[in-house]
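Section 5: illustrative case.
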């Protein structure tokens, strides 16, 4: 149990956070800008919002070794790749399919932790993971049965983007052993936005000239799913167990699917729905038994949508 008592019932900010991260894919779908530009400004605006609080960590930043800067750069590159793949997947597949696959993030982290840190997990977690991946195969395979053109490409991009963010989080697990979580997040956001800026320059994408509507979407991406989503979950960790907050990963595909149905008029085909149900069932089993007890609490609940 937590020593601190939340000033309001925990379920209220948890519900707000789930709704907030569920809007991430909706904002991406609304935008007409290249996804790499959306991702760049989302991270850049978030980093600017965090800047007034970053000064007190200057000493920690100066004490970083060259190898640690290298790991930070690699972590940022994986975060940038995640945004390119996952946000790009929404151009090809449905919100429901993309976010359900993204919810496999804890499973990918567990696999990486086993290969990298030799962390063990239970048979129950492995059983849940197997069910979840069976659902993913059904989801991706359903692209030939009434799915939209390019559905397979979009689902595969979401799967690869999920693997990329898992590598980002595992690198963070190493760095958080000596870095404050705020400083780590801020440095990674800054570096990832710079990586995306270089990518956009190479691709010839404009940095300016976007409509007021597009700038509004960039701002919404920074504020809603980041501040009222992931940062709110970080705050909740002071009052609720990691397992409770971790279950929010199941809320995003459900919330995003409902929002996509109401706002974008998207629907799911029967095989897609069956695959999605299997993924969520597998994740419930996986999260309930506790897959990675050694993982720092900062990474037991974070998502990167």
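Designed sequence:
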């Amino acid at each position: 149990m937590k020593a601190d008592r939340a000033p309001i019932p925990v379920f209220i900010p948890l519900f707000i956070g789930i709704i907030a991260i569920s809007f991430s894919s909706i904002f991406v779908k609304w935008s007409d800008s290249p996804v790499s530009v959306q991702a760049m400004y989302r991270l850049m605006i978030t980093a600017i919002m965090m800047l007034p609080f970053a000064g007190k960590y200057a000493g920690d930043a100066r004490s970083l070794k060259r190898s640690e800067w290298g790991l930070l750069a690699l972590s940022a590159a994986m975060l940038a790749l995640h945004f390119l793949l996952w946000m790009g997947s929404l151009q090809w597949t449905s919100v429901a399919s993309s976010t359900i696959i993204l919810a496999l993030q804890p499973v990918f982290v567990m696999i990486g932790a086993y290969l990298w840190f030799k962390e063990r997990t239970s048979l129950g977690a492995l059983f849940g993971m197997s069910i979840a991946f069976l659902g993913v195969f059904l989801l991706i395979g359903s692209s030939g049965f009434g799915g939209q053109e390019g559905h397979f490409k979009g689902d595969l991009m979401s799967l690869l983007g999920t693997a990329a963010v898992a590598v980002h989080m595992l690198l963070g697990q190493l760095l958080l052993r000596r870095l404050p979580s705020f400083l780590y997040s801020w440095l990674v956001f800054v570096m990832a936005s710079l990586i995306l800026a270089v990518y956009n320059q190479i691709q010839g994408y404009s940095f300016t000239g976007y409509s007021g509507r597009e700038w509004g979407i960039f701002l919404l991406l920074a504020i809603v799913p980041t501040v009222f989503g992931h940062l709110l979950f970080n705050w909740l960790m002071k009052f609720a167990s990691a397992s409770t907050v971790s279950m929010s990963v199941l809320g995003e595909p459900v919330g995003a699917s409902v929002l996509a149905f109401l706002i974008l008029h998207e629907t799911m085909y029967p095989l897609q729905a069956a695959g999605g149900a299997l993924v969520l069932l597998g994740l419930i089993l996986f999260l309930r038994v506790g897959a990675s007890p050694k993982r720092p609490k900062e990474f037991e609940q974070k998502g990167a949508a």
